[in-house]
Write a structure and sequence with these properties.
This protein is α/β, with parallel strands linked by helices and 512 residues long. It contains 16 helices and 19 strands. Strands 3-2-1-4-7-6-8 form a seven-stranded mixed β-sheet. Helix 3 (94-107) packs parallel to helix 11 (317-330) and helix 15 (467-487) packs antiparallel against helix 16. The chain is globular. InterPro entries: DUF604.
């Protein structure tokens, strides 16, 4: 569904000057003809809606969400979306599956998650299909379809039809079809949190763009990139399967399956609803900066682990993802959620990406800088250091301007609905500790960070619609625990409360 994309752009200049040479009478005739056609079309639509008995579910505004009560029942009586309502379509091949299945094993839950891995041919009888993996299906023959992209692969046709073949299985109680690659790692609980915001009875196409501007320019800003996964609601899938085969031939020049799907959906008139938690991960190098400053939104998917450095140092890609997933299993909604606080006694700034990393700056850093990703990576195709779809900042060459970095060591539930994560100091590079300034020397004495936090309530994603409010909640909880741990032994409760309030006010002021 997603392959290494390398292609060139073609200019399509608009020759507006040609229109200026048209005669006045020709223009007048064209305008009259257009008005006549519009009038006929309008009258036809009026009669159609007046006398048709069909119900018409047009795509609502992308910001329309569904509210549920405490029992998980929506206003119209529907059960709240859960994992059983999602059918996964995993695009793979016999050649790639033996290696990439290890990524699927990290998130797939037998007898809980539903779906299939779609292969190009039947596996060898000598291969034992593990029960911990999704069942496989063999895709239909696609040799009858056109494919003329000179730099792509015909497998894009087969991958594009996975949603159609999944739909035609006729499985019950499916609200969403989620498509992705065999090296896509999903975080299913967070995927449910995202999809539950939307009315599954409407037409929705949900996913994310590439992180690299060059990829979005070459392919599209309006498409969900397949490696990061995307979701199609049942009503939209029902319309899509009617035209998909014809679309595949109409868009035979397009490179990837995700492009072909988006082309078909544009014919239906359904735009992409972007969710920032879907990650194509179209980057090269070290993804640390991206994950250390993740946007305040549920982490839904990650991709391309075989093309970037391991997300945890000294671990291979599989073990790195396994470590991240270990934190996710304890507290799904809080995984890589970014919050920060300030120790005003020491003039320290602390940035926390829960379940991944802590950064300690032995000086005060503005919120704007803390929430901007460190540029530890490059673009996908040209290894460029500038063009991304989100803000980045360079890693300073001055060791005294860098943070002290701590990476996740362990995560555990400690009772009372809380978690404890431990982060150990790690030297990103040999030059990091060259700063001999006294404030930096004191910071380097901190070997371990312990972060205590309540387990995240996923309903907050629905109740609080603004990222600022979510981050304020995260900030308050982390900051309160920081103050409690530092000051409880030497301060009265009144003094502790006043200190907490003053620090919160100061921290929020630094956000401006």
């Amino acid at each position: 569904m997603s392959f290494a994309r390398s292609k060139t752009l073609h200019d399509h200049p608009l020759n507006f000057w040609k229109f200026l040479t048209r005669a006045i009478d020709v223009l007048s005739l064209a305008m009259k003809t257009t008005l006549t056609l519009c009038s006929v079309a309008s009258i036809s639509l009026i009669f159609y809606f007046a006398f048709s008995n069909r119900s018409h579910n047009f795509p609502p505004h992308p910001n329309v969400v569904t509210d549920f009560n405490q029992n998980g029942i929506s206003a119209d009586g529907h059960e709240k979306t859960n994992i059983s309502h999602i059918l996964f379509g995993i695009g793979g091949s016999v050649e790639s599956w033996d290696k990439r299945r290890r990524y699927t094993e990290l998130w797939w839950k037998p007898n809980v998650t539903r779906g299939f891995v779609w292969l190009d041919e039947k596996p060898s009888p000598n291969i034992t299909w593990l029960e911990t993996l999704p069942q496989y299906r063999v895709s239909e023959d696609t040799s009858r379809f056109k494919y003329s992209c000179p730099y792509g692969s015909r497998s894009a046709v087969r991958m594009a039809r996975i949603v159609k073949e999944s739909f035609e299985l006729g499985l019950e109680n499916v609200r969403w079809f989620v498509m992705g690659d065999d090296d896509t790692v999903y975080f299913p609980d967070n995927l449910v949190s995202v999809l539950a915001k939307y009315d599954h009875n409407q037409m929705y196409y949900i996913g994310g763009n590439s992180e690299s501007v060059e990829q979005d320019v070459i392919h599209s800003y309006t498409m969900a990139y397949g490696g990061g996964g995307f979701a199609i609601s049942y009503p939209l899938a029902a319309e899509l399967v009617k035209i998909l085969d014809g679309c595949i031939d109409r868009y035979d020049k397009l490179y990837g399956s995700d492009q072909k799907i988006q082309g078909c959906l544009s014919e239906i008139g359904v735009p992409l609803t972007k969710e920032l938690g879907f990650h194509q991960l179209d980057i090269r190098g070290n993804p640390y900066g991206l994950l250390a400053a993740h946007p305040v939104t549920p982490l839904v998917s990650l991709h391309h682990f075989d093309y970037v450095e391991s997300i945890f140092p000294n671990l291979n890609p599989i073990d790195s993802v396994k470590k991240l997933v270990s934190g996710y299993k304890v507290d799904p909604g809080r995984t890589v959620q970014h919050s920060f606080c300030y120790d005003l006694r020491r003039n320290w700034s602390v940035s926390v990406s829960w379940g991944y990393t802590v950064q300690l700056y032995p000086f005060l850093v503005t919120a704007k800088k803390l929430e901007t990703a460190l540029q530890t990576f490059w673009t996908w195709k040209n290894w460029d250091a500038r063009l991304f779809t989100f803000n980045t900042q360079p890693v300073s060459s001055d060791p005294c301007e860098r943070s002290v970095v701590y990476m996740l060591d362990r995560v555990e539930s400690v009772g009372g609905g809380e978690t404890l994560t431990t982060y150990k100091r790690y030297n990103i590079d040999k030059g990091q500790n060259d700063c001999i300034r006294s404030d930096y020397t004191h910071a380097l004495k901190v070997e371990v960070f312990n972060v205590s936090a309540p387990k995240f309530n996923p309903d907050l994603w629905n109740k609080v619609r603004k990222n600022f409010s979510i981050r304020k909640i995260l900030l308050e909880k982390v900051l309160k625990r920081h103050v409690d741990n530092v000051a409880r032994s030497s301060m009265t409760q009144k003094e502790l409360t006043e200190l907490y309030k003053s620090k919160l006010e100061a921290a929020m002021a630094l956000r401006v």
